[in-house]
Write a structure and sequence with these properties.
Pfam families: PspC (PF04024). This is Two-component system sensor kinase. GO terms for molecular function: kinase activity. A five-stranded mixed sheet has the order 1-2-3-5-4. The protein has two domains: 136 residues, no CATH class; 127 residues, Heat Shock Protein 90, CATH 3.30.565. It is 63% helix and 10% strand. It is of the alpha+beta class. The longest helix has 65 residues.
């Protein structure tokens, strides 16, 4: 039976079976409660691991509201403590307090991690149990009528502290862990920025000089540019936005074309949106064909500008070649007509070609972009 997942998590970390770890907890329990204390310490301080996927989370779901059933059984427990154990009112209060502690522990350690239970249920159960626990403490304190009742007051105070600690300790531990994670992330970001500044002043500047001295058409310049792009992406790439997949795939196209042809391809992408898979494939394939055509027939510098918006996504491919007349292209040459225009039309988009003496611009449009 799963309680808080401590034994299972510890077994996975140590590479042992869950049953073995549970037996160690049981064997350590008689030694002054060492097993119980160790279990509670691990439950309170070790970070909670989220389920790896939806199937694992589904496997942890329980249909029985154990915490709520414990609260329902609370009067029976109080009666057993008062009558069967012959402890009177103190026995009843002690039994009720133990049940409340069990309810809060189960709600925090089990139900809170179960996606099948809403937050309102788990929070409400904990608050109800904590309220009953505090009520037991107050009743125990008010029931002091003799000198021996000092122990009762101490017990009531202890119950109140347990209630408050059970409610707020996990939140404080989680807050402390988050602060530690933020501190580590900030230190790593500062180190990364310092390294980026150093490499920018040394390695990247050297690669830029190599490209300028060697010329865009040389093999040395192409290799230097590929290394510069890879290093810049590693140094300055931040968290990937929603539309980053399309931009990343187009940059891969640019790198491939640069290695195969003596050209320089600059890719600039702005905006965030979500594209359907078929639209993304059509845009990437059509852009690749447009860039390859520009590299073969125009050469020099080629610019690819990507604008990802909610209304539509557009890709502009520009070169500075001599231009061409699309109507004069023989029917057997299907590079522009089918691989670019036809492909976009079949995918539900559009493509236009504007060519003149100062160069050619191919515009690819996808008008059905969904908001992310």
């Amino acid at each position: 039976m799963l309680l808080a997942g401590v034994a299972a998590g510890l077994a996975r970390h140590l590479g042992r079976s869950t049953a073995t770890v549970r037996w160690w907890f049981v064997l350590l329990a008689p030694l002054g409660g060492a097993g119980v204390l160790l279990y509670l310490w691990l439950w309170a301080l070790v970070p909670v691991a989220e389920p790896a996927d939806a199937e694992e989370a589904k496997g942890l779901r329980r249909a029985t509201p154990v915490a709520l059933l414990l609260l329902v059984a609370l009067p029976i427990t109080a009666l057993l403590g008062s009558v069967v154990a012959d402890l009177g009112a103190i026995g009843a209060l002690a039994g009720a307090a133990l049940v409340c502690c069990a309810v809060i522990a189960w709600s925090l350690g089990v139900d809170r991690l179960d996606p099948s239970w809403p937050a309102a249920y788990t929070n409400g159960t904990r608050l109800l149990a904590a309220g009953i626990l505090l009520l037991c403490a107050v009743l125990a304190a008010l029931g002091v009528t003799n000198p021996q009742g000092v122990m009762t007051v101490l017990l009531a105070s202890l119950l109140a502290l347990v209630a408050l600690g059970t409610l707020f300790a996990p939140r404080l531990v989680k807050l402390w862990s988050e602060l530690g994670s933020e501190r580590v992330a900030r230190v790593k970001e500062e180190q990364r920025a310092e390294m980026a500044a150093h490499l920018h002043d040394s390695v990247l500047q050297t690669l830029a000089v190599i490209q300028n001295r060697a010329g865009a058409s040389s093999e040395v310049a192409r290799l230097a540019r590929a290394q510069e792009r890879e290093l810049r992406e590693w140094l300055f790439a931040g968290p990937a936005p929603v539309g980053a997949d399309l931009a990343a795939r187009l940059r891969e196209v640019a790198e491939t074309v640069e290695l195969e042809h003596p050209v320089v391809v600059d890719v600039v992408a702005i905006g965030e949106a979500e594209l359907p898979e078929d639209a993304g494939q059509a845009l990437v394939a059509a852009t690749r064909e447009a860039v390859v055509n520009a590299a073969r027939h125009a050469g020099g510098d080629i610019s690819v500008y990507v604008e990802i918006a909610v209304a539509q996504t557009e890709v502009f491919v520009r070169d500075r070649g001599a231009g061409f007349d699309l109507a004069a292209v023989p029917d057997g040459r299907l590079g522009v007509r089918e691989s670019i225009i036809g492909r976009m039309q079949r995918a539900g988009g559009a493509a236009t070609v504007r060519s003149g003496e100062t160069g050619t611009e191919i515009v690819l449009r996808w008008p059905e972009t969904r908001r992310a």
